[in-house]
Design brief:
The structure holds 2 protein chains of 2 kinds. Chain A is α+β, with helices and mostly antiparallel strands. Chain A is built from 11 helices and 4 strands. Chain A is globular. Classes of the chains: A alpha+beta, B alpha+beta.
């Protein structure tokens, strides 16, 4: 168990943003993923609830083309991961199985220079935020032990996409902070998911918004997410729509 | 051990591995049958998430104290040792002097458990999780039971991989992430239902599971439809249509 790894990985993302004197964003996650996964490029597509998917950020022009290709064709690793709720990790696109699975995407991806591709869904249970794609110009799997880091980076991207919504952490954060909310997901707790579900009813919102509000509340109160969730599940705390305004109690 | 119960259990588990089975529902059934077969007090299937955490996929009870015992083992405990060594780990008397895992032992005894066992879920040279058994009275499983327990842990591994046919996954790692996410969907649905009906989480889980079984639907699909639904009513409108009956009985 490489426990404590999420904090380390988030630290890399926060440092990347700090070095550029800007708030942490999905672009920092993509940049860190390039070196962490030892790939040529990383991109993120976002899917806002009910709306069309769009390219959120890319680290090079080939990423943009690979992302757009999948959106246009409606097939490819990033396309599949949301349906399967699992990463898809083709380490050698030249293998016949990938051309069979994605007859439109695979030959074109190879032509663009992607010999390997890895896709991670950006989701938390039923909450879906988009997909993160990685490509490498040479074939080969993710380096040993790096799948975990890829998953953590995908989590970070998911948080940032959800936090960026109208009631998310961004609106609750004070001016001038460059690191924003810490990941606070070092340990996954079922209570956080349960509290999310409870809040859809209490606030009358979608699960994605419920989760964003939960995080915003914890951030505004300077409390650990797990502790706030625990209070909600134990019914010691309710967040009502009238009371909650931009993360305040 | 009741030989008929033993064979019935394995037949039941095998029969559940049909094309559109639900891995979390399956592992929940396995945990439940493990308790019955091995005369344990509680059981859970814990999976090793590559993010660096042991996460419970299913347990024989949704009781918060039991969930906490799985959670504690991220720092110390039989599941952690089992994961690291790939070997069965047993502690016959957690209430005895000088326990191996002081914080875990104290919490387990507090929750009413004096005996604990962790059997590795192995896939080739990798340990992907563990079957964690608790018993109220102290004392280890006898040797015959340990072999059955290991067989159940192996069935849990097979069950995890079985969904590969549904998901077109290529690797066990992908399967594991799908299973972990299914668990999250179910937790979200539990929360929404518990809030809606003003009931406890374990009762909410029971309602979700009973509805999916009664209508021959996948538990995760029911949970996801409910969470996605814009209304709080259960069952929500637009629930996926039941699939044709595959099972021979049940």
């Amino acid at each position: 168990m490489a426990s404590g790894r999420p904090e380390v990985v988030w630290g890399l993302v926060a440092s990347h943003a700090a070095a550029l004197h800007r708030r942490v964003s999905v672009a920092d996650v993509c940049a860190v993923a390039v070196s962490s996964a030892q790939v040529s490029g990383v991109w993120v597509t976002a899917a806002v609830r009910g709306g069309p998917e769009f390219v959120m950020c890319v680290t090079d022009p080939i990423c943009e083309q690979l992302a757009e290709l999948q959106l246009v064709l409606g097939e490819g690793p990033c396309h599949d991961v949301l349906a399967s709720a699992a990463p898809v990790l083709p380490s050698d696109l030249d293998h016949k199985q990938w051309a069979r699975r994605w007859p439109g995407f695979t030959p074109e991806a190879l032509r663009l220079g992607a010999a390997a591709a890895f896709a991670f869904p950006l989701l938390i249970g039923a909450i879906s935020a988009g997909a993160m794609g990685l490509y490498r110009s040479s074939p080969g799997p993710l380096p040993g032990g790096r799948l975990g880091d890829g998953l953590i980076l995908a989590d970070a991207a998911t948080m940032l996409l959800l936090d960026g919504g109208p009631r998310g952490v961004d609106s609750a954060a004070s001016e001038g902070k460059t690191d924003g909310q810490s990941l606070d997901l070092a340990v996954h707790r079922a209570e956080i998911d349960q509290a999310t579900g409870m809040l859809t009813g209490q606030l009358g919102v979608s699960a994605g918004e419920a989760f964003a509000r939960l995080r915003a509340y914890a951030y505004a109160q300077d409390r650990r997410l797990a502790d706030v969730a625990s209070d909600i599940v134990a019914r010691r705390l309710r967040l009502d729509p009238d009371a909650v305004q931009d993360g305040e109690p | 051990m009741d030989a008929e119960l033993l064979s019935d259990t394995f037949v039941e588990l095998a029969d559940t591995m049909v094309a559109d089975f639900d891995v979390i529902d399956f592992l929940h059934m396995l945990a439940d049958r493990s308790v019955r077969l091995l005369a344990a007090s509680a059981a859970g299937v814990v999976l090793a998430d590559p993010r660096g955490q042991l996460r419970v996929a299913a347990a024989s009870s949704e009781a918060a104290e039991l969930m906490e015992l799985f959670q504690l083992q991220n720092d110390q405990g039989p599941c952690l040792d089992c994961f690291r060594t790939g070997q069965p780990v047993t502690a016959a008397d957690l209430a005895g002097p000088d326990p191996r895992w002081p914080r875990f032992a104290a919490a387990a005894v507090q929750a009413g458990f004096c005996g604990v066992e962790a059997l590795p879920m192995r896939l080739r040279d990798q340990v992907i999780g563990a079957l964690n058994l608790f018993s109220a009275p102290p004392g280890p499983l006898d040797l015959g039971d340990v072999r059955i327990a290991q067989a159940l842990a192996d069935v849990a591994t097979i069950g995890l991989l079985q969904e590969r046919n549904v998901r077109r996954s290529e690797t066990a790692a992908e399967q594991l992430q799908a299973a972990l996410n299914s668990r999250v969907v179910i937790e979200q649905a539990k929360g929404k239902l518990a809030e809606r009906l003003g009931i406890e989480m374990d009762r909410a889980f029971g309602l979700l599971r009973d509805y999916s079984r009664d209508n021959n639907l996948r538990l995760t699909d029911v949970a996801r439809s409910f969470v996605d639904s814009g209304v709080a009513d259960f069952p929500p409108p637009g629930m996926p249509l039941p699939k044709p009956q595959h099972r021979a009985f049940g």
